[in-house]
Amino acid sequence: MLIIDKPAGLPVHAGPKGGPNLEASFEALSFGLPQPPALAHRLDRDTSGCLILGRHRRALAKLGRQFAAGRIGKTYWAVTIGVPPKPSGRIELALAKRSTAARGWWMKVDPDGQRAVTDYQVRGESNGLTWLELHPHTGRTHQLRVHLEALGCPILGDPVYGRDCQPQDVLPLMLHSRSISVPLYEKRPPITAMAPVPAHMRSILSDCGLVDDAAAGP
């Protein structure tokens, strides 16, 4: 496998209209294998950070089983508008897809939807903004974004969820896949990778208490 640091603003694959995308560069990551690597999971276009690629079909199948079993540890950092009701907790809200001709598609809390579970912890606050550490136990589309909106503290810069309380200035989405841990071999420790804080989040996280990126851990 390969673990790469995905930049914010770049979709992982081409949409209906084409355009720049991460998969278009995978040929350069073959490193001697006959086929380029492929996505083992996905990140939203505007989410930065750790992304796993499988280098061949067997690796992708193994990684897929580990994701399905919840064995791969994922840590995200987010900056939210407002403060959660508790300094730490678990969000268990099922999600389902909705679609209209006027709005397109989005995800919504729905008791009849797919199970979705996220743990969160407050790591710092400043001027009405909160630095949250997030641990999703399921991998639903837009899970973190919808869960935080439902908690009453939408992610800063999210153009879809909680948009009514976003600032007037156009900001990038403040969501970062900070680290990922993969138990690739049964008798060895998990392989862990950590992505540095992206440029668009540094100053706000610094205001919220981040002093040393490398020392802050996952």
Task: Give the gist of this structure.
The chain is of the alpha+beta class and 218 residues long. The chain has one domain: Pseudouridine synthase. The chain is 14% helix and 32% strand.
**H/E element string?**
EEEHEEEEEEHEEH
Helix fraction, binned, reads 10-25%
Q: Can you give the mean pLDDT?
A: 92
CATH class: Alpha Beta
Largest sheet: 9 strands, mixed
Low-confidence stretches: none
CATH topology: Pseudouridine synthase
Counted up, domains total 1
Q: Rg, please?
A: 18 Å
Annotated CATH architecture: 2-Layer Sandwich
Number of strands: 11
The structural class is: alpha+beta
- Global shape: globular
> Could you give me the name of the CATH homologous superfamily?
Pseudouridine synthase
Architecture blueprint of SSEs:
Elements: E1 2-6, E2 38-39, E3 48-54, H1 57-68, E4 73-81, E5 88-92, E6 95-100, E7 104-109, E8 117-126, E9 129-136, H2 143-151, E10 175-182, E11 191-194, H3 199-207
Parallel strand pairs: 3-10
Antiparallel strand pairs: 1-3, 2-3, 4-9, 4-10, 5-8, 6-7, 8-9, 10-11
Domain Pseudouridine synthase RsuA/RluA-like: 2-150
Keywords: Isomerase
InterPro entries: PsdUridine_synth_cat_dom_sf, PsdUridine_synth_RluA-like_CS, PsdUridine_synth_RsuA/RluA, RluA_PseudoU_synthase
Describe the structure.
The chain has 218 residues and is of the alpha+beta class. The chain has a single domain, classed as Pseudouridine synthase. 14% of the residues lie in helices and 32% in strands.
Key traits:
alpha+beta; 3 helices; two-stranded antiparallel sheet; Pseudouridine synthase; 9-stranded mixed sheet; about 220 residues
